[in-house]
Design brief:
This protein is α/β, with parallel strands linked by helices. Helix content is about 35%, strand content about 25%. It contains nine helices and eleven strands. A hairpin with a 2-residue loop joins β5 (about 120-125) and β6.
Amino acid sequence: MSSLPSDTLPASPQFLSDQQPQVTYFIADLHLAQNRPDITACFLRFLKTDAIQAQTLYILGDLFEAWIGDDDDSSYLATIAKALTTLASFGTKIYFIHGNRDFLLGKEFAIKSTMTLLPEVDLIDLYGQNVVIMHGDTLCTRDIAYQKFRQKSRSWWWQALIKSLPLFVRKKIAANYRQRSAAATAIKSQDIMDVTPNEVVKSLEKHQCQLMIHGHTHRPAIHELMTNGKTAKRIVLGDWYDQGAWLKVTPTSIELLNKPLN
């Protein structure tokens, strides 16, 4: 599918709202950053060609490689915010769940991007079916070191302390954290970094539903399991390191899709 020029869109908002098809997209783990213009370009094409045809776009965390505060007014972040706002102006509702890389993203940037912030675990109605959606890091309970950091970093006092630091200091802290995270990930076993099956079952039983959608593990797949006395499905979204990846849902179909970055 060819992309559109950056200053054009296929139709007026009124035209699209009148003929909007029943399509919902889910994405996660894009890890957008200035040093990966290929991922950024792929994302912008996705917004203009695929997401613009949808009723709803759910972003399930790690949209950005790192987030140091809504006061970062770089032109790069302004470009992403403008692209999302343009999508919303054509009738697509955009929802965002925080990931482990962008959990500091706040209301200010959400407003700039015309995104609605959701709780870290949410229950949605997807064409008549209840679905649990989340980033997915809370399911990886065997990664004890990460879970300890997660608990600390979600506390009000830690976030208040970080946000009080000058922007340039936060940038250095974020860069240092990414380096340490990459080193730690390299020596962790695959099992530790994957979800704990019992946590999946507990979540589905808690919400009394048979479908879960999440990201985080970078292992796109549709898994079947038993819970609530019935067959259930867990859909894992793909990351965008080597390709664009998204889940397309209609009232009659569920597809994990991907396209080359270039």
